[in-house]
Each structure stands twice: as C-alpha cells, then as structure tokens.
Amino acid sequence: MKHICQFCGKTFTANDNYQRKYCPKCQKSYNRYYMQFRERRKTDILADIYTKHYSKRHAIYKAKRITKAILDDWRLNAGIKRQEAKNRHMTVEEFENWCDETLTELKTAFPSVKQRKNKQSSQSTV
C-alpha cells in the first residue's frame, strides 16, 4: 500500500495495513524528537503548573461558564507570566500563586450551578 509522508512528502510503501503518517526515515527522526521532548518535559515544572491550571480553566469553559475569549485572554497572560518565570523575573511560587489567584477570581465571578443553588438556599433560610 502506498502512503505519502506527512513530513517530507515522499511516497513510500508499507507492508502492513496500518495507516502510516511518516516514511521510515522521518519516523526515526520523529521518535527521537518525541523522546527528547518527553525528557525535557519531565524536568519542566512551569509547564506542569501551566498545564494543570489550563486544564481547570478549559473544564470551566467546556461547562459553558466562561467564553473562549476569557480562556484565550488567560492563556496569553499566563504565557507571558510563564516566560517571566522562565527568565527568572518571577519565581515559580509567584507564578503558581498568580495562577491560583486568577482561578479563585474566575470561580467567584462565574460560579457553577451547584454553587449558585447552595448560595440561594443559604440566603433563603436566613
């Protein structure tokens, strides 16, 4: 079966029915690059913090509590703050605290349905 490499564009044949994206030469390069990426990622604390907080915000976005613009705005600001922390203008703890503070602000500004019901029920009993 003939395939076209998505990296170099050359045509190559595969002996199995598996849909291959890369020719054998590019596959080796891709595997090596991916392994290097995984090794770098293991030691990158800032990326872990960013990913954790982005995941929380994306879940809030998927629940339709915030808009895409709010998510993108935070993503851009977090990227700038992350770069500052990477360049040592800000500590890792300051970056994590900033992420936590913005998440707290977001949750108070856009409460979930469960939080709204609990707040309404506590106000009605008072």
Furnish the topology, listing elements before pairings.
Layout: E1 2-4, E2 11-13, H1 24-43, H2 45-62, H3 68-86, H4 92-109, H5 113-125
Antiparallel strand pairs: 1-2
Helix pairs in contact: 2-3, 2-4, 3-4
Description:
This protein folds into 2 domains: 2-41, no CATH class; 44-111. α2 (45-62) runs parallel beside α4. By secondary structure, it is mainly α. The N and C termini lie far apart (73 Å). It has a two-stranded antiparallel sheet. The protein is 70% helix and 5% strand. The chain has helices spanning 24-43, 45-62, 68-86, 92-109, 113-125, and strands at residues 2-4, 11-13. The model has no long low-confidence stretch (mean pLDDT 86). It has 5 helices and 2 strands.
Q: Gist?
A:
By secondary structure, the chain is mostly helical.
Order of the strands making up the biggest sheet: 1-2
pLDDT average, as an integer?
86
- Count of individual domains: 2
The best one-word shape is elongated
Q: Supply Rg.
A: 22 Å
Stretches with pLDDT under 50, minimum 5 residues: none
Number of strands: 2
Provide the structure class: mainly alpha
Q: What string gives the helices and strands in order? A: EEHHHHH
| Beta-strand residue fraction | under 5%
Q: Termini distance? A: 73 Å
Q: Total number of helical segments? A: 5
Largest sheet: 2 strands, antiparallel
